[in-house]
Amino acid sequence: MDQPSFDSQSLGRRLNELLVLSLLRRAPMHGYQVAVEVEEQSDGFFTFNHGTLYPILHRLEGEGLIAGEWSVPDGGRARKAYALTEAGRTYRADALRQWKTLVGRLSPFLDDGAAVDKVSDGAA
Amino acid sequence: MDQPSFDSQSLGRRLNELLVLSLLRRAPMHGYQVAVEVEEQSDGFFTFNHGTLYPILHRLEGEGLIAGEWSVPDGGRARKAYALTEAGRTYRADALRQWKTLVGRLSPFLDDGAAVDKVSDGAA
DNA sequence: ATCTTACTATCGAGCCTCGATATAATAGGC
DNA sequence: GCCTATTATATCGAGGCTCGATAGTAAGAT
Question: Taking CB atoms and an 8 Å cut-off, how many pairs form between chains A and B?
Fold first, then answer.
């Protein structure tokens, strides 16, 4: 159990990465599209500022987790489509596992009366 | 529109706060004890650096979410015990709701929706 | 022609954690 | 009495990351 436990500092970053990688897992997309999809599919709950999204994409590409490829569609300007790599798939699976671990570990702290700690009153 | 949607930047901070407030909800504690309890009860998964914890406590106290009171036990140095205030209880309930919303909203992105069930691309 | 939309990109400011360091009081070893 | 470990609170600089603004390109609409 020598897990790196939990790094609250990078939590936001890792969640953003997980979101991007999860979208890219379904189909390759270019940056702008990622932002639009995330926002649409979550009814506006999740959003990506451009100044946040592009650095993420560049970082992930630099780490070999996604691969970008430029293309110029008939009508329109050049865009860079990103696809998940094998390493990215592995990384995503791991990140997902970590996320679920976090949620599970946090749970007993949030719900009291979980019958684990000292529950003085038998309300639950 | 009226939804603050989701702020990835403050996610770590808010999770830490939620953790602290949730512990304090069960019983008043002083700072050092919060750190010890969190670490013990999570088997070392969650930890609090002192440089992280105390600013959090001061912030929460400044916002009136927790109330600190100095006491000097027979043997030992002065300690400041923090107790959740009414405002803190409300805030915690809200933060908890937000956390669960986040988890719920994120879920469909993580688990492939309906369509993709088999990964059929070339021999894995 | 100009304005809007689609699209990629970068930079400074600001916030927050991390790790080191300081302070202080008591208990125990010697 | 002295030294160190333990309990406990507190602050500061460094670093990382998002946010919002800014910038630039190209196509299509007015």
Answer: 87
